[in-house]
Predict the 3D structure of the following.
Amino acid sequence: MKEKLVLSVLVDNESGVLQRVASLFSRRGYNISSLTVSETEDEKFSRMTIETNTDPENFRQIKRQLAKLEIVKKVSALTEENSVSSELLLVKVKAKGLDKKNELLAYNVKYGARVLDVSGSTVTLEFTGTGDTIDEFVDYIYENFGIVELARTGITSLKRGEGSFSEDI
């Protein structure tokens, strides 16, 4: 049975790292459903947050294979219990006329998305939250207003509690 599984991977901050990690997944036929990469608090390292849907045995194999790469410094599985996660959404919504704009903004009170741009026929919103919350927001906007375009970052996560993922490297 496939499950949504999330890995936090600490890697060297150098060119070619993303390609090497992504090719590890593709060579084994695993799909990456979400991938975010960013420099950490220490500029020598980048953090990759990788989401995949696979069975637990494949997940264990992915962790082992990642850990074998010399560019990988640390690999950790993230769960809802041991981490906090968020995604970023930018969405340009159809909202022609004052009534539609007011209706959109009234709905938005529930979610608290930030208004980035207003034109004659659209409103662009920025929203952060969990993947499920963003899905719910997008579905409602699509069905009730229409979407001109959207972009999502994918999941980004940190472990709960004190300390840094890179502190013992």
